[in-house]
Design goal:
The protein is an all-alpha fold and 193 residues long. It is 82% helix and 0% strand.
Length: 193
């Protein structure tokens, strides 16, 4: 299908096929984490559940990914308004905060071990490692997209185009999704651990 056919298809369906694919990927990930949430709650009711308080570093990681999402949203708005320097600065800030999120997640796992909740000891701790680790893997996928976006931002002449805007919007949609997903997971793990 050539570019003109894709554009006409977009106009007819009101959603670009690549945007639809992004939303479909987010829906699939949602179903996976919904199944994990269900298993977590059902297994907790089954007994042999170690109760512990989630280490505070997980709150710091939550604030980090929310700040990253805000920075990337600001970057996208700056791009659309043609503010090149602000766009690039916020893009790099969002990317750095994405890396910081993964680092604080690792620090959270270390903190869990330090309070006596190592992996493979009790289902409650194992679920925390599995859920947060699987989420971190999805964040790493988003970081790869952000790195590619940053390389393009700094290697290509600045120009606001529909194609570039679409790529950034899809990346931003995915990033906001993993951000909101973590906020949900953090609340779940805080309330039920």
């Amino acid at each position: 299908m050539n570019a003109m056919a894709v554009n006409q298809e977009y106009k007819r369906n009101k959603i670009h096929p690549q945007k639809f694919a992004t939303w479909l990927a987010c829906a699939s990930i949602t179903m996976m984490f919904t199944a994990l949430t269900s298993a977590y709650i059902v297994r907790q009711a089954g007994g042999n559940w170690l109760e512990f308080r989630l280490p505070g570093i997980f709150l710091a990681s939550t604030m980090t990914i929310v700040a990253s999402s805000i920075a990337l949203h600001g970057s996208f708005l700056a791009y659309k308004k043609g503010k090149e320097q602000l766009y690039k600065m916020l893009l790099l800030l969002g990317l750095a905060l994405g890396f910081a999120f993964v680092i604080t997640q690792y620090q959270g796992w270390v903190a869990l071990q330090n309070i006596g909740v190592p992996l493979k000891t009790n289902p409650s701790g194992d679920f925390v490692y599995a859920i947060s680790g699987l989420h971190a893997a999805h964040v790493l996928g988003g970081i790869v997209a952000l790195i590619i976006g940053a390389i393009r931002a700094f290697s290509m002449p600045f120009k606001v185009t529909e194609r570039r805007k679409l790529r950034q919007e899809m990346t931003l949609t995915y990033w906001h999704f993993v951000d909101l997903l973590w906020v949900y997971l953090f609340a779940l793990l805080t309330l039920y651990s």
